[in-house]
Write a structure and sequence with these properties.
Number of strands: 10
Shape: globular
Radius of gyration: 15 Å
Order of helices and strands: EHEEEEEEHHEEE
Distance between the termini: 29 Å
Helix content: 10-25%
């Protein structure tokens, strides 16, 4: 893991990010895919053992010139964040577990050390990360795309 990354257990990091209201330091990534647009957060969770980055994302379509979310996704990229590997409508742990196809148990995966990058002003406060977020939504277009099925655990 890089020097500027805080280390967490993979099974807890998604809730920590959600509770902290973590905001990306760079604009969200957009990619055209399967007749829609995949938006992924620049905040990523790096799992060094598997050399992957895990992001929150939305699969959207254009409607009346606005991005409209269809599905909330967990998206996996390679360690350089260039090659798309997998996505699912599950939480971080379940998505990576599906992608690994049995290479470890859910319990082992939850205990894996991971790092978080892309967060502005990382300050540890209890279990959470305080960021002083910008108030921007992940779509970056003024839509209410956070409301599309975002909740704890399974999506």
């Amino acid at each position: 893991m890089e020097k500027d990354e805080k280390q967490y257990q993979f099974g807890t990091v998604e809730d920590i990010l959600r509770e902290s209201g973590a905001e990306p330091t760079e604009p969200d990534r957009t990619e055209e895919m399967d007749g829609g647009i995949l938006l992924t957060s620049r905040i990523h969770v790096y799992l060094p053992r598997f050399e992957i980055n895990v992001h929150e994302g939305y699969f959207c379509h254009m409607e009346d010139g606005q991005l409209e979310p269809l599905n909330f996704l967990t998206v996996i990229y390679d360690k350089t964040d260039k090659e798309f590997l997998y996505d699912s409508e599950e939480n971080f742990v379940d998505t990576v577990h599906e992608w690994l196809k049995g290479k470890c148990t859910l319990e082992q995966l939850e205990q894996e050390p991971c790092g978080v990058k892309g967060i502005r002003e990382e300050l540890m406060h209890g279990k959470g990360i305080q960021t002083g977020g910008s108030g921007r939504n992940p779509c970056g277009d003024g839509t209410a795309c956070r409301s599309a099925g975002r909740h704890h655990g399974k999506r």
